[in-house]
Structures are given as structure tokens and as C-alpha cells.
Amino acid sequence: MIRLKSLTGLFSAALATLAFSSANTALAQPTIIEFPWDWRIEVIPNGGTAPIPIGLWGSATVAFGAPSDGSGNTFPLGPGGGLGAPIPAPVPPGNWTIPIELVSLNLMSMGPVDFPGGATPVNIRQDPQRQSLGRIENLQNNNDGTVQLDSFFDIFVEIDLPGVSMLLRNDQPMTAGMSFGRSGPFMPTGPLPEVDILWAPTWIWNIYPPGTAPSWVDPSLHPWDRWISIHGHVTPEPQSLVVFALTGLGMAFLNRWRKAS
Fold first, then answer.
1. Is the pTM here over 0.85, yes or no?
2. Is 189 a member of any domain?
């Protein structure tokens, strides 16, 4: 009987070890989303005063690290996937941080853009030499099917202007993000549906105060243009995001724009 109990205990311990190992293996799998991305940006040429609006459309890929609450705990985000991919389970109680990376970015303007040096298409790509890293921070379950969080990237890109034979990049990271359901450091909007937390990084917004915007520089670091504003979102949005996109986001933008004007 004692031997049977010992074997039973060993068997239970082995199952527990296997379950723990499987859970950690699952968490080690990368979570990646791929999506169509729509950007609206404004730039001002060096020495100029008139903003140049540019509409861009293309695709992007974002990778997620393991969530952490600072105490060694985590939870699975699932494999990710295409537009609207959900997480596999509700966000657990706690205050969570998730590292994110903009792995790939390929955007092209919807037509030629008029610059002082001539009209040219605009192509924006992820900088191959500098990572665009960010975080989802202050992720908390509101216990009503929604979550609150801050999400942002420090974005580094190449700006290809083939019509004027120029290849530029931003000299400093272009920080842009959103604050969902809280008064955070970024453009505020309503809480995010819990199943759509993977899509928080696809909403980015920033209006730079005068004198703070990163410049577009050439290989000699000569500045040519500077960012004024950026707004990026997926097209089309996951269905559960449509309501908040048409309400709180629009009002928040108007309020922020009035303050910046």
C-alpha cells in the first residue's frame, strides 16, 4: 500500500511537471498578428510653414512577448493571426505589461505627394537597422468584458521618395500610441473589448507640439522634413472596435486638436 501511494505520488508529480512544462512551452510560442494598416500623416518641409498631408496604405506585422505582472506571472496570448484574432482567455486580475515589436512595415502613398523638390510617391518601411519597440502597459481587466491599457511604439522608418531620388529616415524615434479606457499619456479613447487586446497596437496617434517632432534626415543627417502628426489604424477594424472608433476616439481627437492649435 505504501509503495502504491508512492507510485501514485510520483505519477501525480510527473503530470504536474508535464502540465507546467506544456504551459510554459505554449507561452514561449510567438504571438504575431499581420494586418492592413492605414496611416494619415502630416509633415512640414525644413524651413517651411505649410503642412503636407500624406495618406498611406499597406501592411504591417507586430510580435508580442509574454505578459508580465512584475511578479513572475504570465498568461497566454495565443498564436495571433489575421484581422480580429482574439486572445484565448480573459485577462487575469493584475496590472500587466506586454513587450511588442513592429517587425515589418510597408506603406505606400495613395498618390504622388507635392514636396518643394517635386512630386513623388512616398514609401515608408521599417528601418532595417533599428528596431521599432514598444509596450502595452497598465493592462487591467475591468471585469465587464473590457480592458484598459496604454499602448505605444517608438517607431524607426525609412522614407523612400523615388520621384526626387531621396532615401530618408527619422533621426529620433517617432513615439505614437493610444490610451484605452484611462487618462494615460497618449490619445485617450474608450476601453477596449477584452478579446481585442492584440489589436491595441494597431491604433497609434500623436500630434507633436511645435519644436518636438523628429525630423526626416538624409544619410548625412541633414534634416529635410519633420513629422507634425500621425494617425494609424487597421482597415477595416475588428467588428468589436467599430463602436468605440466612431464615438470616443473622434471626440478625443477634436479636443486634442483644439488644444494643439
1. no
2. yes
